[in-house]
Amino acid sequence: EVIEMQSEAGAAGAIHGALQAGSLATTFTASQGLLLMIPNMYKIAGELSPTVLHVSARSLAAQALSIFGDHSDVMACRATGYALLCSASVQEVMDFALIAQAATLEGRVPFLHFFDGFRTSHEINKVARLRVETLRALIPEDLVRAHRDRALNPDRPVIRGTSQNPDVYFQGRETVNPYYQRLPGIVQKAMDRFAALTGRQYRLFEYLGAEDAERVILLMGSGIGAAQETIEHLAARGEKVGLIKVRLFRPFDPAYLVGALPVTARRIAVLDRTKEPGADGEPLYKDVLTALVEAVAEGNLAHLPRVVGGRYGLGSKELTPAMVKGVLDELAKDRPRNGFSVGIRDDLTQASLDWEPSFRPDAARGVTACLFYGLGSDGTVSANKNSIKIIAGGTSNYGQGYFQYDSKKAGAVTVSHLRFGPRPIHSTYLIGDDEAQFVACHQPIFLSRYDLLDKAKAGGVFLLNTATPPERAWDDLPRRMQQQILDKGLSFYVIDAYRIAGEAGVGRRINTIMQTCFFAISGILPRDEAIARIKEAVKKTYGRKGHRLLERNFAAIDAALAGLHPVALPGGVGSFPARSFAGRSCDSPGSTWPPP
User: Which of 125, 226, 126, 224 is nearest to 430 (CA)?
Assistant: First the structure.
């Protein structure tokens, strides 16, 4: 039954009622909607009702509205009594949803399970799907029955929701202390049981890097991916650097933090993805600093490292490996700056750090990166979602798809960032300059508006949808773009996708046509297999809309290759390459990728 509530406040109220009735209940939200749930969250936590609230963490409207991602919304919930568990990847979102449910049933503290809005919530990646048997094994039936037995029931009357005077209210608030003191251990135990079932081990505070690290970064969320690539790259070259991945932010457990920190650590940078104007530091930084000071005072830590805090990633601003290295370089200074920002140029208060944009970690090697420029609602994003699923599902490759939207949505530019390669991909940042082996422009109007080839890699491919015939396509390009094609040695292809779409009867939907061209040029799959898989994806997407629409899309796909043309460049350059950018011959019937 679907009932529309007036707002997220009503949704939270409905969850509260369902929990009091003994149901297993959950909800999900973000941003301003989460703020509307806060009053009910205090009640749910105060009554020790187990539940999990899933949040794709996003910005809050401050000087302006932003629909994009940071941790502003979840940080506004720190005092509600909810435990805060943070996922850093698509795989972790699935895994931590289960771990949080197991922990809340045992600990009776409700959980706010959050992950970065857009960067994680909209990313497509190859994951190991949890089996139903794993779900059942991690959720003990006796804990479910115990929750149901606590339901409001006229056969077992209890009183709840009372009003308390000063003589008892304070005492009542303190009675929850044992539940929160036990909870970190309960969560770690759930993580250990999960590891026994799946082989994926998580820890509340997870260290990665050199055993004798002197400079350490702490953060949580999707920024961990960029930080991990940086730390692994530098540590492999002998630098004494490390990373602590923060999983459980509330309740914050100092003992687990100290246990994860190398004894050699001398400098620590804590990165927060939120801003608290007027505070002397952001939330994670202050918790870490307090925990370390107390550990030294109690004799659990030999010395107090120098701890600095900084902000990154507000409103989905990028955090790249180059920026992470900039933070580590700052830690190497005699007096590293506190209260810094990274990822922007702060010319007002001069608080931002410098970084070297050209830095690239080893993790980028062996990965094929592709960019697709389209318009909102033209089907580009949908086609590329299908493409990355085809690549990850039909080959041994791992795949990652991320889609850069404009807040104006339909009619605004969308950029699809696709990566695939033989190893898991942790690159939680956009494809950078000189990285893309394949660049596709689905709308010719973009030629004069965007620097499409700045991100193209030398020896790569540029595919353009244009009504201009192949023999005149070169002359239609802006002068700067022509020079980039020559300087970078790019192969240039064109297709009149709108003409093909019109003749096939699919209107202005060019997504499957451009997708077919991508697979033909890339050679990631044999051509016939790729086309078969594209048609299968189209059938799943449009099958309910009738056989005639399917036939029209199939006709457009079949006609795409005949309309794909290489463009001869000045000097006679320009033909289908003997080997494609993904390492396969474009006409190869079945060789494997990557090549030997």
Answer: 226
Dump pLDDT digits (tens) for 309-355: 999 999 999 999 999 999 999 999 999 999 999 999 999 999 999 99
The answer to whether 179 and 213 are in contact (CB under 8 A) is no
Is the peptide bond between 251 and the residue preceding it cis, with omega within 30 degrees of 0? yes
| Structure tokens given for 353 | 């750090």
Cα 392 to Cα 396: distance, rounded to the nearest angstrom: 7
Q: Say if CB 418 and CB 403 are below 8 A apart.
A: no
CA nearest to 202, candidates 247, 136, 140, 257: 247
- Percent share of the chain, pLDDT over 90: 76
| Nearest-10 crossing angle of helices 321-331, 223-235 | 60
Whether 102 and 42 have beta carbons less than 8 Å apart is answered as: no
The reported pTM is: 0.91
Q: Cβ atoms within 10 A of the Cβ of 208, count?
A: 17
CA atoms within 13 A on the CB side of 206: 18
User: Alpha carbon of 92 to those of 74, 115, 510: distances in Å?
Assistant: 18, 9, 34
Q: Which residue has the tokens 């609602």?
A: 377
Beta strand ranges found along 286-367 (DSSP E): 306-312, 340-342
Q: How far apart are CA 485 and CA 481, in angstroms?
A: 6
The four Cα atoms 439, 444, 446, 452 give a dihedral, to 10 degrees, of: 20
Which two tokens mark 483?
């020079």
AA letter at 487: D
- Of 344, 294, 282, 340, the closest CA to residue 318 belongs to 344
Contacts with 156 (C-beta within 8 Å, 6 or more apart), sequence order: none
- Alpha-carbon gap, residue 133 to 527, rounded angstroms: 38
Cα 505 → chain centroid: 37
Q: If pLDDT is split at 50, 70 and 90, which confidence band does 508 have?
A: confident
Q: 393 phi and psi, to 5 degrees?
A: -90, -25
Distances (CA, A) of 550 to 147, 504, 505: 49, 11, 11
Q: Comparing C-alpha atoms, which of 493, 510, 489 is closest to residue 552?
A: 510
Top pLDDT among 122 and 412 is at: 122
Peptide bond into 478 cis (omega under 30): no
**294: pLDDT confidence band, cut at 50, 70 and 90?**
very high
Angle at 310 between CA 309 and CA 312, to 5 degrees: 150
Q: At what angle do helices 380-394 and 527-542 cross, to 10 degrees?
A: 130
How many Å from the N-terminal Cα to the C-terminal Cα in the chain? 55
Residue among 254, 222, 283, 231 at smallest CA distance from 90: 222
The residue with tokens 């955090």 is: 319
State how beta strands 124-125 and 248-250 pair. unpaired
Name the DSSP letter for residue 78. Answer: G
Strand partners, 307: 268
